Amino acid sequence: MATRRSPTYMSLRWRLFCEPRRKIGLLMLLLHLVNMVGGQIRYSIPEEMKKGSVIGNVAQDLGLDLKRLRSGRARIVTGESIQYTELKTDKGILVVNERIDREQLCGDITPCSFSFEVILENPMELHRITILIQDQNDNPPQVLYPVQTGGSLVAEMVPRSADVGYLVTKVVAVDVDSGQNAWLSYKLQKATDRALFEVGLQNGEIRTIRQVTDKDAVKQRLTVIVEDNGQPSRSATVIVNVAVADSFPEVLSEFTDFTHDKEYNDNLTFYLVLALAVVSFLFITCLVVIISVKIYRWRQSRILYHSSLPVIPYYPPRYSDTLGTGTLQHVYNYEVCRTTDSRKSDCKFGRAGSQNVLIMDPSSTGTMQRIQSEKSILDEPDSPLEVS
Predict the structure, then answer these.
(1) Can you give the pTM of this predicted structure?
(2) 300 phi and psi, to 5 degrees?
(3) Contacts of 32 (CB under 8 A, 6+ apart)
(4) DSSP symbols for 228-285
(5) Which band of pLDDT confidence, cut at 50, 70 and 90, is reported for residue 245?
(6) What does the alpha-carbon distance between residue 222 and residue 200 come to, in Å, rounded to a whole number?
(7) Among 12, 17, 273, 330, which residue's Cβ finds the most Cβ atoms within 10 Å?
(8) CA 124, CA 101: separation in Å to the nearest integer?
């Protein structure tokens, strides 16, 4: 009689049977992967290398010939979104593909490095390559305190009763570079009274080096320079305003015109001088042009006044009667009647179609011609001469 097993019993036997085989399979896979890893190499390069710069000869360092790289279709496999390197299979060299910024890649982590694998096929090979990034002094120091506020005024208070070694303030700066490139030193570059203050070389503390007296000026201006230890070194400058006074109202009365003591910018002065020169040049040019035009017009008027050339009168052209628009027509007719007695004469105007017309001849300048009709006035039957 067959014994029926429960499902729970059967699944338990299957797990006991399969678990050892599964563990053995994973172990064999790991051993196979270890056998595929042919070698590991490490390169150390400085940051900010130009694109296309050679990192190393991968074929020579791994003991591979160029034929193997080409036949195995060698390629780089990396989990990064940016591929910083490129493998030239025709030459077997590794070159920079993208600019590498150590601070962007690793931040404050030291040492900074990244790794990737070179894969070859037929047969499968894995070669691990690690690139170590050396820091370069490519960042200047950054001043955190005192904050440079531009136009607004911030001053440190020092009482007149301060003793020797009184801590005025502390300049705080950082450098994002690593190693000795991030070592900072502080120096007092300029001061209103260099015999009153000093700056700590390593910590940036500003302290008094003598007793403060009543003769010391209220307004004190210190210029501190912060330098790193790189080659070549980079620096940053910070201005510290110090008020030597016992009360706040005294500080306000003395510092009201402090902002007017700023140094003039050389570029701003140059532009102001250039603008003044341009405006002056334009003004002088306009003045010369105006005077020249006045002189020219005066000379033209004098020439016309003293000229002996004949004046040619201008007569308007002849228009027809239909074009006249005024009270008098441009062309009109008239008749003259005269008796033997010069005191008795008669004139008759305005008869249309008169035989006598006074017109202007455009062919002769300044002359008038009288056109006679075929019949003379004396021949007219209605003439007063015939009646008498």
Answers:
(1) 0.54
(2) -65, -40
(3) none
(4) ESSSS--EEEEEEEEEE-SSHHHHHHHHTTGGGGPPPPHHHHHHHHHHHHHHHHHHHH
(5) confident
(6) 13
(7) 330
(8) 33
**Token pair for 75:** 């390629």
> What are the two backbone dihedrals, phi and then psi, of residue 377, each rounded to the nearest 5 degrees?
-65, -35
Of the candidates 76, 91, 86, the residue with the CA atom closest to the CA atom of residue 127:
76
Alpha-carbon distances, residue 9 vs 5, 16, 17, 18, 84 (angstroms): 6, 11, 13, 15, 56
Contact criterion met (CB below 8 Å) for 262 and 256: no
Two tokens, residue 112? 């900074």
Distance CA 95, CA 93 (A): 6
Residue 308 buriedness (CB in 10 A; 0-12 / 13-18 / 19+) = exposed
**Contact between 97 and 45 (Cβ < 8 Å):** no
- How confident is the model at residue 110, as a pLDDT? 85
Rounded-to-integer distance, Cα 301 and Cα 382, Å: 58
133 pLDDT above the threshold of 80: yes
Following DSSP, what letter does each residue of 171-218 receive, concatenated?
A: -EEE-SS-GGGG-EEEEEEEES-TTTEEE-TTT-EEEESS---TTS-S
Residue found by looking up tokens 């070698």 in the block: 39
